Amino acid sequence: MPTASTKQRARKKARAQASPANSAALTESDSPSVAPADDGDIPERAWRGASIAILAVAALLRLWALEINPLHHDEGVNGWFLTNLVRAGVYEYNPENYHGPTLYYFTLVPAFIQERVLGTGMSTFMLRMVTALFGIGIIWLVLKLRRYTGTFGALAAAALIAVSPGAVYQSRYFIHETLFVFFTVGIVVAMLRYYETTYATYLMLAFASAALLFATKETAFISTAVLALAWGVAWGWMRVARRFGWTREADTRESASAAAATGKTGKRKRASQTGATNALARFGGASHVALWLVGGVAVFVLINVIFYSSFFKYPHGVRGAIESLQIWTKTGNKDHTKPIDTYLNWLQQEEAPIYVLALLGAVWSLLGARSRFAIFAGAWAFGLLLAYSLVPYKTPWLALNFVVPMAIAGGFAANEIYVRWGEAKARRAVALALVSVAVAVCTYQTIQLNFLHYDDDSYPYVYAHTRREYLQLVREVEKLARRAGTGKQTGIAIASTDYWPSPWYFREYKGIGYHSDVRAYTEPIVIGKEAQQPALETTLAATHARVGHLYALRPGVNLVLYARRDLVEPGATIKDNELAPSEIKR
């Protein structure tokens, strides 16, 4: 007895009727899917093994020694928001200063487990673990594009992202960008699966990804606009290529459709109309598509309302989300402004292998006109590069938005070499060598950036980062608190106007105060800025002594530490080997 519902059988029948084999009037724009790219006879077992190996390397680079570099200023602010959310249950979205709330709510789960269930307190590893996992998730999504980039192309793209200096660095950073790019790629993968299968579940996933994208960062309108334009470029270029005979068609169904659409203008118009009707029929008919689109919009609105209202606790956050677009357009023209060629220079310094392969892939996809998706990937990558270059506001983490699609376009180029360029054995050797060199160069740069020079601002991705010397100050404060016998109850006065990420590192201290000026302090520990040193020397001369020398917070900002005289002699420093291992790594 058949178990499929009447509606399911009707949709299957509609899809069969809409296929090019049954309808010569289906145009190339209505083709149900892009044909699978050639895989070069790579065995399925090899594909699975290579995919697992790439994900394992990505995990190692993103999770190993995750707390080695101190938190950036922005990470400290984000950590402070998370701390309030975990301990007080309070988060209110502020459109004037901060990005969307998804970062905090996704991190709330492990933070709550660590803080409330295990009772161990939140850690820097936990804080960054969520962004690291989303960074690995980006690679998993890229592997899902195998049908469109080819097997070798998907592996190459995934490997390039796995070892990309910027992709690794931003994944080890508690900021919004990695989540943002994950949701962007999620839209692409979900829409392709919907286009291929017509299952409405994937359409809902695409709307959910778009909703989470907007709930993560206000620049979502740039990414969605570029995605739409990139698909328009791909569709238009393939249409022109077919008309003028430039294309070496990979999809025979699309070729048949294009051929059926030629002839007199009237016939083409009737074919286009019939093709549009058949395309809608394939997705269940116009009313069915409209119903699911309405449902998708409802999902989009609901997710954004949930997050921006902090799960309906602060409704004014929803209004703030709308206001954020206007605020960002002003911020984007006055803060962090840099020359138009900044991103190009950064790419050449840190992502040259990916950049070169992406250029090759984009040009190759246009000249060959074989794959609509390859053209889309190139337009997506370089469209975002152009968009962010035209905006005066420029920061290194924004580069992740176009580095990922560049790697996808580069993967397509590698796949074309692997399956089409010359004799089989030679072309495969060339493709493997090319990708291996690119991965090796990126791996070397990744190790240098992420594990050795993570606070060296001569590297483009290191942007006003907290210097490693700051952790020495944190360690000395911990030792002084132990000597005082008051532990986390020790009073600490922060006189410096620059103090982030101190609220994260001193989050357990109950008697800490941030004053931003010099006054008569009674706290046993006082931290000030180098410029405040003369005033601190005068004010604290009778009660406190200076500990150590200068502690670099970030480029151009140095801190000084003073402690009550009974805790430390003038000029004394605290040796690292006096500290317990748990105090050294935070």
Describe, in plain words, how this protein is organized in 3D.
The protein is mainly α and 586 residues long. It is 62% helix and 5% strand. It has a five-stranded mixed β-sheet, sandwiched between helices. A hairpin with a 2-residue loop joins strand 4 and strand 5. Helix 5 packs across helix 8, helix 9 (177-197) packs antiparallel against helix 10 (200-214) and helix 10 (200-214) packs parallel to helix 14 (286-308). It is globular and about 90 Å long. The termini are far apart.
Most strands sheet: 5 strands, mixed
Strand order of the largest sheet: 2-1-3-5-4
Q: What percentage of residues falls in helices of 4 or more residues?
A: 55-70%
Our measurement of the CA-to-CA distance between the termini, rounded to an integer number of angstroms, reads 63 Å
Structural class: mainly alpha
H-E string: HHHHHHHHHHHHHHHHHHHHHEHEEHEEH
Low-pLDDT parts are 1-36, 251-272, 574-586
Query: Would you report the number of β strands?
Result: 5
| Range of strand content | 5-15%
- The outline comes out as globular
The radius of gyration is 28 Å
Q: What is the arithmetic mean of pLDDT? A: 86
How many distinct helices? 24
Relevant terms:
mainly alpha; five-stranded mixed beta sheet; 24 helices; disordered N terminus; disordered C terminus
